[in-house]
Every structure is written in structure tokens, then in C-alpha cells.
Task: structure prediction
Amino acid sequence: RTVYVNGEYLPETEAKVSIFDRGFLMGDAVYEVTSVLDGKLLDYAGHEARLARSLAELDMRNPLSAAELLEVHRELVTRNEIGNGLVYLQISRGSAGDRNFLYPDESVPGTAVLFTQSVPDLAMPPAAERGIKVIAFDDLRWGRRDIKTVQLLWPSMAKMAAKKAGCDDAFFVKDGVVTEGSASNAYIVKGNRIITRPLSNDILHGITRASLLVYAAEAQFEIEERAFTIEEAQAADEAFITGASTFVMPVIEVDGKPVGAGKPGKVARRLREIYVEAARKAAI
Ligand code: PMP
Result:
């Protein structure tokens, strides 16, 4: 596989980053994941805009211009012959050499790394047919979940706990209500109404969420932005999550209780179709 690191395209075995890089030592880095369907980038403008916001919130500069960033995405998709899959992008603050809590001088360049992963069944993976089971898990992440940093230890611990419980994922819970999934936004469905938490610093502002809410409103679904509890999710007609690499994924069990009939529901199925069709059309 060919990867990109700081201006160079290299075989993955030859790509190198300093051990003093703040991304490595301090989790001082932000990332994005953009899906690729039929060789084209999905929701690219949204991911580009969120990256700029994450960087700005952390006073970090992007070593790549907007034009270069798109060019690298496309070049990696081409070189690695990605039909369906994803492009991972990470920008860290780099390092001045020694370990230091203080940021290095502005002249120190950040580290940009991009790579692809091939996911042949991205459009319709088995999990989307089956639906997934989630556990409830205390949301003990830091308070700026709106910034897409690489500090993913708590989500990893949540996924490990889910696996141990025979489940696939977790719904994070804070102050008695669901914030989001471990790497996704969370929703419940009641009749024709889609309920999801409003944007704040408590959740990542999902790019898939933003697109889906527009497409769902166009398709005459009602949208209510408010937080919901685990009990409410268990009693809902349906539940689902969204993310750039999962699109719309039905949730069939929440903390040991089946949701609805315990099978993927018709609204989640319909929303998945709507999202994939519209996102494909808008792909670049
Ligand atoms: N919330 C969290 C915590 C996430 O990690 C992700 C996926 N990166 C999302 C929500 C979904 O965001 P997006 O639709 O932009 O992938």
C-alpha cells in the first residue's frame, strides 16, 4: 500500500514519523475519515470543513492547502485502486524535539499522514443486514468531544467492554441521557419521527448526521433534536447510529433489551438507502 507522509508518497513500510511527535506522545492530533464509494469521496466538503474547525479550535495549522488535501485523497485512492473503502487523514502538531507540554513555535511544521483502507462491502456490510447490539457505557471522555482528536482510548475501552458482553458497540451515557455511540451519532425512531441529540461540545458534529438530517427532512421524516435515555431507546420503534464508514446502521438491542422487533426496522433501512443514494450522487 502507498501512504502519504509530509509531502511524500511512500510504501507503508518506509513511511516514518518522529518518536517525539506530539501526536504520538500527547495525542495532540486531529483526524478525519472519508468514505470512498466507486472511487469517489463521500461528504468530502463536510470532512474538510470539520478538519479546519478542529485545527482552529486547537490553534493548529494545516501543513496542506485545501487543494493539496483533496489532491492527496484522490492520488491515494488512485494509487491504491480503492473502489470501496476509506481515506484516513491525521494532522498532528509535530514537535520541536524534546517532550514539552507547551506547544512548539509556530514555525514548527505539523505532521500530515494519510492512508487508505479497502472495504469491498462498504455499501452493504453484513452488520447492516443483521443490525448491531449496543451496551450502555458511562461517557467519561473529556469535555471537548466536538473536536475530532485522536484521543480514542475511552471509545476503545467501550468497544472492548461491548465485545466482552457479546455486543458490537456502546451508547455513551452522561447525566442520565445518551450522548452518542463510541464512534457514531445515536438516534431513536418513534413513528415517523427521528430523535437525536442537538449539537454541543458533548458530541462530535457528525458529517453523516448533518447530511442525513437534510435528506431525511426532504423525505418527509420529522426530526426532533433532543437527548434521550437508554430506557427510551429500549422502548422506541427503532434505533440506529450514523458514521462516515457505517452510514446508517440499525441498532437492534440496547443494554440487553431488544428494540422494536429486535430486527433492523424499516425506517433505518429506508434512511440507509436514502443516504447512500444521495451521498453517492454528491460524491466527488
Ligand atoms: N461521534 C464520534 C465520537 C465519532 O468518532 C464519529 C465518527 N468519527 C461520529 C460521531 C460520526 O461522525 P461522522 O459521521 O462525521 O463520521
Summary: The helical segments are 22-26, 44-57, 66-79, 126-130, 153-164, 207-218, 230-235, 266-282. Residues 33, 180, 183-185, 204, 206-209, 242-244 surround 4'-deoxy-4'-aminopyridoxal-5'-phosphate (CB under 6 Å).
